[in-house]
Design goal:
By secondary structure, the chain is an alpha/beta fold. The protein is 40% helix and 13% strand. The chain has helices spanning 9-12, 45-59, 73-87, 103-113, 128-136, 153-165, 189-202, 257-265, 274-314, 339-350, 380-396; strands spanning 31-32, 96-99, 119-123, 140-144, 146-147, 150-151, 172-175, 206-209, 234-239, 251-254, 319-320, 328-332, 352-353, 355-356, 370-374. Helix 2 (45-59) runs antiparallel to helix 9 (274-314), helix 4 packs across helix 8 and helix 9 (274-314) crosses helix 11 (380-396). It is globular, with a radius of gyration of 22 Å. Bound molecules: pyridoxal-5'-phosphate. Pyridoxal-5'-phosphate (PLP) binds at residues 36, 101-103, 127, 129, 176, 181, 209, 211, 239, 241, 246, 251.
Amino acid sequence: MTGTAPLDFDRLFARSAPAGRTLGTARRGTYDFAVAYPDPTSIPLDELIDGLREALAEEGEDLALYAHAQGYAPLREFVANKLARDRGIYVTADDIILGDGSGQPIHMIAEVLLDPGDTVVVEDFVYSGTLSTFRRFQADLRGVACDNEGMLPDALEAVVRQAINDGKPPKLIYTVPTFQNPQGWTMSLERRKALVMLAQKYGVPILEDDCYVDLRYDGNDVPSIYSLDGTGHVLYVASFSKIIAPGMRLGYMTAPRPMLERALAVKSGGAVNTFAAFAVHRYATGQLHSHIEEIVDIQREKRDAMLEAMEEHFGEQATWSQPQGGLYLWVKLPPGADVVAARDKILATDDVGYLPGTNFAADGVSGRNIMRLCFGYCTPEQIREGIAALARGLRREGVLAEAGG
Ligand SMILES: Cc1ncc(COP(=O)(O)O)c(C=O)c1O
């Protein structure tokens, strides 16, 4: 055959393939409150290099191997010990799968549980990455109203019962119980117990996403949901992204064996990058604990700087969360205010990035008057300048009334 047949990819894409994403680097503001980056200056670069050098001297030739898909065993051992010590989760290294961040384990869990149209129960506003993953598998997302202690138990039960009545019992309840992204609250012990009881009563697994648990600035730890269960109803994911760096792309999951085996079967790309796992393992074994203490002090100061700046520049015109940890403030402007429309303009003119509440809405549309502001990346000084610039920009764009007006 001669000639070239015309190639129209649009005819070839799978029906389930999502729409394309913009290529190239997205513009970030100098005052970047949009994305949950950790503090850039405290990443332990020298220590990670030392750890890597040590591991390469001892085991470097193993880079010639395709490692087992669960990932570098000594790092899984470290994770198992950390979970036992910090979260009351008693599992072995064989019960851990290391992932490309915690996003990959979440994706694996969604892939093995969800057929199109399956119900997933989520907090009314919750981490957008997981919502996109669930949408990717065409889940029917049902949001549950929350207060400052997490999902309202009656509302949760009503949502579960409604799904059952619709003939679509939930496949999963997803929660970020500690320093919730984006709302900032931490689920109380009582609510955690109620959630576990409900999951057991209706036979629905819980996916506990504990990505921020180490970043506590005030108050006392609350036991993990996993540790309150004991009947195999809880799947657990967490990450090194917020306590070392997202660039390491290392997170992990644990779950009951049948779930783990299925999840491993859909894990793409084989084991996590052994080079990164070497560095994190050697570094974390001796020094992660003190590093967490250091970054907690740094982030507490940034949180306080943002809270003070909000008080100064937004005063009565907004309300915002008072998080005991994590990386965000959740800022509610008066009903009718629209931060979605103003976002690009404020980024271009005021150099301030934020994410609108709609990005986190289970229904995809609520939250036009809400912003999530991340304080993790900028310095306290930049935070003060950036919040002043944000308030100015919102007033100029008519989103907020002129101060005193
Ligand atoms: C609640 C939550 N879960 C999971 C993730 C995924 O992070 P990573 O894949 O870097 O571990 C994030 C990232 O911001 C998050 O906020």
